[in-house]
Amino acid sequence: MTLTELQLTIRDALYVSLPGMHWVTAEISEINENYAGHCYLELIEKQPDEKNIRSRARAIIWSSRYRFLKSFFENTAGQPLRNGLKVLVKVKIEYHEIYGLSLIINDIDPAFTVGDMALKRQAIISRLMEEGVFEMNKELEFPLFPQRIAIISSRNAAGYTDFMNHIVKNGYGYVFYTALFDSAMQGQETEYGIINALDRIAAEISLFDLVVIIRGGGSQTDLSWFDNYNIAYHITQFPLPVITGIGHEKDLSVTDMVAHLPLKTPTAVADYIIDCVAQVDVRLNEMTTEIKNLSHTILEKNRNRIESAGLRLLPLTRIRLSGTRETLSGMIMDLTNNGKKYIYKAAMEQSSLGSKLRMAAKTYLAGKLSASERLSGDLRSLTNSSLKDKNNSIKTLENSLRILSPEKVLARGYTITSVNGKILRSGEELKENEMIDTLFSDGSIKSRVTQGLQKKK
User: Does this model's pTM top 0.70?
Assistant: First the structure.
């Protein structure tokens, strides 16, 4: 037989063996619309490994039928026919002697596609939970001042523009440092683009406080690109908090679920970051006021104590000095009186001897006068020495009082530690987590006890 006869025989055999319509499940590998409105598809089935192709067939939806099926599928499934979708199609087998085998699609069941996508999505969620990584990014501590922001978005996305307008023109005048890591946010390049952006951010992790993934609004189809295991896994392992603003009001993608915080829109992400900084700013202002008031109270309290101590020390010093002066005056008076008595006694003895002892008296008086002069000199020397010693003692006492003043003690590096105004004399009086006040020469600090007294060995 001729080749044509063989082809016609094959066609007839197919029509006899497989008459009518057949429901077939397959994955769309390629899809194209031509100028006449016909839709040409390549359908495939993959091996269980989801990589190798098990079978392949060409399919056609004629324009008259395609207009209806396209609208029906998009309205029901919430997305258009595209590469990578699994579909359940009703086909008629057609064999042409020139073009070979073709499947003419007459109907599509969108419920099958929706169910398949839901199963894939649930499988991704279950896998992340089984691996114990689903909540990892949520467990990261959110920064107090999230001012250095790494942005994963398309530079042409309206959502990126909205985000930047909100961040730059915020009503508080805060300054944020942003860096855009450009990536496709829909289509088959989404996975590679986002993962590549995360890797680039990780290489410069010290420059950023958090990561935001944002895009504008879109259809349910656009959201499906974020139901991706690889994207979600990279986010769970990322060392910085990730905030998403993918732009869907109702549904959360798997990417949203594993992020530190999912928000509806890019502007909502910007507002949240600004609010975080504003709240910390308010709290810092409150703490500044509290510290200032507490410092004034402590300073005033200690100023009064020092002044009170000074007032108590002054009378005591005056009393000590007065007592010392009185003692010295008494000693001087005693020395003077004793000297006068001695001289008077010597003069009386000289007068009583009279003339009969004149010569002897002259000799005696000469000796006594010499002795008196020596004694007087000794008395003056002793008096001066005693006065000098007492003055030195007074100065030493004054210096000791000056050195022992609270201001001098604090200036030498000592401190005064107190709890609730009570001065501590032993570390055993302290308890853990108790607040203590420490006074230095130039001010004071407040601190918390983190460990009790460690006794000397």
Answer: no
